[in-house]
Write a structure and sequence with these properties.
Blueprint: H1 3-8, H2 15-24, H3 28-33, H4 46-58, H5 61-70, E1 74-77, H6 85-88, E2 96-101, E3 109-113, H7 120-135, E4 139-142, H8 148-158, E5 163-166, H9 182-190, E6 194-197, H10 209-219, E7 223-226, H11 235-244, E8 248-251, H12 262-269, E9 273-274, H13 278-285, H14 290-295, H15 304-310, E10 318-319, H16 320-327, H17 331-343, E11 347-349, E12 354-357
Parallel strand pairs: 3-4, 3-7, 4-5, 5-6, 7-8, 8-9
Antiparallel strand pairs: 1-2, 2-6, 10-12, 11-12
Length: about 350
């Protein structure tokens, strides 16, 4: 079994701790076989090293693989080309994603979040805006929670769109929470979307895992739309994560007498983009021709920069430095253009900053 995937099962593994292992060991295999004294250059505390070694020695590798197979979960690490490019850009991206479904369809992703206890107004706004966005090819990302999250997923499916659910628990059928949305999780997968988490099968949600989940929701997406939020709503955590990582934050204006108004209205006071229809989001993200992007099977460049890069991309991998040199474009332009091409499904990073045409 891939040792990267085994490391991802360690409950306290993070991307920063993984980078510490890479600094201390020449390869993953050696870090897996290491003894206590070998971790001195990893940055790991002694207590953490001891906990890891005890966990490793008790791990049943065969059972671990069997669970993944039975639950149809595949693991996507940061070394894999399937890993979402936007998520790599955040400060603390998840070391590994435990995925059910297909991440290849994560085109033009937008987070939609709101409270569990929502108003009738919030429900109406969610249905109207999400249906219009999903029908135009926007992938709706949310947290599968009761309330606005679940409604956003359901509305995207009803509109024939794709949606991705991010969990704060294990992705196996016995631990998906809330239990009331386990059927919805299956429907998301069947419609070509995905249910993902950074936590291995069997993980029970707690007050720590849900806020951590919110950074993934924000990190996967171009922006976060807050439908409603009280002053202490978890939706505001997602909005803050979006701001921290340079993503757009959108909010729907609220009735000032509503219990779920304060948080959303405060976001607007602080400069969030006001949204009264799906068009406000398409305008802000410059996605007027998104339907054409999503449905087109031909790689037709949408900008001079794309045209320059497409002429040097093929099924043969080429390093980004070579693309910069050949295209004579500057590094920021090449990086941003390749990221957009990945979101359109036109190019793919296969690892090591090597790129190929996606189709």
């Amino acid at each position: 079994m891939n040792k990267l995937i085994l490391l991802a099962h360690f409950p306290k593994m993070t991307v920063h701790r993984y980078r510490g292992l890479r600094n201390a060991f020449p390869n993953v295999e050696e870090s897996w076989q290491a003894q206590a004294g070998d971790f001195k250059n990893s940055g790991w505390e002694d207590d953490l090293v001891g906990e890891f070694l005890r966990w490793r020695d008790k791990l049943d590798i065969e059972k671990t693989q069997k669970i993944l197979d039975q639950e149809q979960i595949h693991c996507v690490t940061m070394a894999d080309p399937e890993y979402p490019p936007l998520l790599k850009e955040i400060y603390d991206p998840p070391f590994c994603l435990f995925v059910r479904g297909d991440l290849d369809n994560l085109a033009f992703p937008l987070a939609v979040v709101g409270p569990r206890k929502h108003s009738q107004y919030g429900e109406q706004v969610t249905r109207e805006i999400v249906a219009s966005l999903a029908a135009r090819g926007i992938c709706i990302v949310s947290g599968l929670a009761l309330g606005i999250d679940g409604l956003a997923h359901q509305t995207a499916l009803q509109a024939g769109g794709r949606t991705v659910a991010v969990l704060g628990c294990g992705n196996d059928k016995y631990h998906i929470q809330p239990a009331a949305h386990r059927l919805l999780a299956n429907q998301i997968i069947e419609a070509g979307g995905a249910v993902i988490t950074e936590y291995p099968p069997g993980t029970v949600p707690n007050t720590f895992t849900f806020p951590r989940r919110n950074r993934i929701i924000a990190g996967l997406t171009l922006g976060t739309l807050v439908i409603e939020a009280s002053e202490s709503s978890g939706s505001l955590i997602t909005a803050q994560c979006a701001l921290d990582n340079g993503r757009e934050v959108f909010a729907v204006p609220q009735n000032i007498t509503s219990e779920t108004a304060t948080g959303a209205n405060n976001l607007l006071k602080m400069g969030a983009r006001l949204v009264t229809s799906h068009q406000d989001i398409l305008d802000a993200l410059n996605l007027h021709d998104i339907k054409q992007y999503v449905t087109s099977r031909d790689i037709v460049p949408d900008s001079p920069a794309e045209a320059a890069l497409i002429s040097y991309l093929s099924r043969e991998p080429v390093h980004i430095d070579q693309l910069i040199k050949q295209s004579t474009l500057d590094s920021p332009t090449v990086n941003s253009t390749l990221t957009l091409m990945e979101m359109k499904g036109r190019a793919r990073n296969i690892g090591g900053m090597m790129y190929v045409l996606a189709r």
